[in-house]
Design brief:
Layout lengths: L14 H24 L6 H14 L3 E2 L11 E5 L2 E3 L14 E10 L2 E10 L5 H27 L4 H15 L3 E2 L5 E3 L6 E5 L16 E4 L2 E3 L5 E3 L6 E3 L5 E3 L2 E6 L2 E4 L7 H4 L11
Antiparallel strand pairs: 1-4, 2-4, 3-12, 4-5, 6-10, 7-8, 7-9, 9-14, 10-13, 11-12, 14-15
Helix pairs in contact: 1-2, 3-4
């Protein structure tokens, strides 16, 4: 989720506050790991939601999504042509060949973590698996751009957007969903700035230490146009094509980033772009 703002009101965190966000991020990572293992043909998205809430509360957290503007669940569980914000249900049963995107948020001691993964159900078409990998790689390209930008001292918000878009365009012809994207995060789940998944570099607020951002590309195998269903939440592709959604929460430090919702802090994908100033765990 994310909402575009005309004027930026960015919350800048201290290193200690970013470290507290890491606790929430690790809980979200644990939840998504458990859900990834649970995804299988015959499992309902309602069952996944119940498991997510159980793991969040057992870990000392509160589900970010539950009750947010009336949202009735602890995760978003978007299957196939559903892009984002699909409401879990016991009536929505996964089938072999489905692709499900699970978005999860948790609050620990007032600080938020937010992440999403796309998971294959059984045997999935290779072109759909490829799209999921492209989205994942594009997300990491955006995160790397944020790390280089804050380290250099001259990075701007849309450097992230440009890196995401460039990675997608290099990989093939995919629809980059418009109107939805990443966002600031910290003491609230959705804050300024809105993080586009495309655009020219060098624009927007400077990337500086203390920022918390959620980076979240959404791609379609067809055209990028979307519709919102009558439930007021579920966003689907207008042409019925399959979509994917991935997301990580990051914190910006003087010497790089910490990926709050990655168990290793992002070291496997980012190497020395991960900060040395915050604990990985």
């Amino acid at each position: 989720m994310g909402a575009r703002s005309r004027e930026w009101e960015i919350e800048y965190k201290t290193p200690e506050q970013l470290a507290r966000m890491r606790t929430a991020g690790l809980l979200v990572a644990d939840v998504l790991s458990r859900l990834r293992e649970a995804v299988a043909p015959g499992v309902s998205t309602g069952e996944l939601d119940a498991l997510a809430e159980q793991v969040i509360r057992a870990g000392g957290g509160v589900p970010s999504f539950l009750g947010y503007h009336g949202y009735p669940a602890s995760i978003c569980a978007s299957v196939n042509e559903q892009v984002v914000h699909a409401i879990p249900s016991r009536d929505t049963v996964l089938r072999d060949g489905d692709l499900i995107s699970v978005d999860c948020g948790a609050i620990v001691d007032g600080w938020h973590g937010d992440a999403a993964v796309t998971v294959p159900v059984g045997t999935v078409r290779s072109e759909l698996l490829r799209m999921a990998q492209v989205a994942e790689d594009a997300m990491w390209a955006g995160i790397a751009a944020a790390a280089r930008g804050v380290r250099s001292g001259v990075g701007r918000l849309t450097d992230i957007s440009y890196a995401v878009e460039s990675a997608v365009l290099r990989a093939g012809r995919y629809g980059i969903v418009q109107g939805y994207g990443g966002h600031g995060i910290g003491s609230e789940m959705h804050q300024d700035p809105f993080v586009l998944n495309d655009g020219r570099p060098g624009k927007g607020p400077r990337l500086v230490p203390g920022m918390g951002l959620a980076i979240e590309p959404m791609l379609t195998i067809g055209r990028p146009r979307t519709l919102e269903l009558s439930d007021g939440w579920t966003v689907v592709t207008a042409d019925g094509s399959v979509a994917v959604h991935v997301e990580h929460t990051i914190g910006l430090f003087e010497d790089g980033v910490l990926v709050m919702t990655a168990p290793d802090g992002g070291r496997d994908r980012l190497g020395d772009l991960v900060t040395e100033r915050a604990p990985v765990r």
